[in-house]
Specification:
- By secondary structure, the chain is α+β, with helices and mostly antiparallel strands.
- The chain folds into 3 domains: about 35-185, no CATH class; about 185-270, Tetratricopeptide repeat domain (Serine Threonine Protein Phosphatase 5, Tetratricopeptide repeat); about 275-345, no CATH class.
- The chain has 16 helices and 5 strands.
- It has a 5-stranded antiparallel sheet.
- It is globular.
- This is Cyclin delta-3.
Amino acid sequence: MKIGGVVVYGGAPRGSVVPLLLRRRSVSLRVFSSSSYSSISDHVSFVKDVAATQPPQHLSHLLNILKTRGETIVSPGARQGLIPLAIPLTKNSSGNVTALLRWPTAPPEMEMPVVEVRKHGVWLLAKTVDQFIHRVIVEEDVKNSQERNEAVFNASADAGKKLYRTGDFAESGISNLDVYLLKKVGIFPDIIERKVMRHFEEGDHVSALVTGEFYTKKEHFPGFARPFAFNAEVLLRVGRKVEAKDAARGALKSPWWTLGCKYEDVANIAQWDDEQIEYIKERVTEEGRQEDIKKGKAPEQVVLDEAAFLLDLASVEGEWDDYLERIAKCYEEAGLPDVAKFILYRD
């Protein structure tokens, strides 16, 4: 529960999860291609000049891999209707957008995650670009020769060779792909959740509960609410309603746009109606702002918290564009003009 308007993440107030303390600098913005085709160099420039952060080392390899898999490279500025923290990379035949997530606040060593953009937020695909590439080439390597897409290995180029040696899965003695990925590549939300569901199918509720709890360890997916939301579902399934309620309420302390589902789905388990939404709406009023300042909160932190709350509210209906101006204004008032420009940028 966001009592007092602050939820701690990694030792910092909740609002500070959203804006990254960037140094002031003048940025000359250029218009990025808004056509169905956008060059790979556009994305590297966009990350540097608009998102004002360091591009992942193997971003070009990732884009080449996605293109090889049949996805269409889209302009990084084609962000209408998307969560404003996303940097679009590609769109697949179903219309799903793969993107980088530009955490406005992140430890210096944390790279931008790869996500799938959804109406109510994002789904984490991989914690880093390298992790995503590593998984893709392993999954290609385990296919038989008729199904394998050799072009994926070529697209991964030197990055792929650095991350994985062809044939290593077969030589590992591990028969299950998911097990190999978890041991050798990294922890992925979809694999963990699939593992839990497999335990349920086998009637092993204890292992399902243990895996669900493992999912929520803070070092695995810092800043993401999804592990806690899923664990609440697991607890509810085995009849632990009180624990499920607590887990769901814990999930709602993290950004709602990282729940991996609708806000209402988690709020129902938490046994909350609209009181959380109403509470946040109060916090983002001028009265709420002045109340926080009277309590001794620094003005900069007040507006950063407000930006985080506005992102939460936008995620409920997925109406991101309705909140852009207010979110950007919060960052501007906090002395973060680069973040404000990034939030507002559209082709």
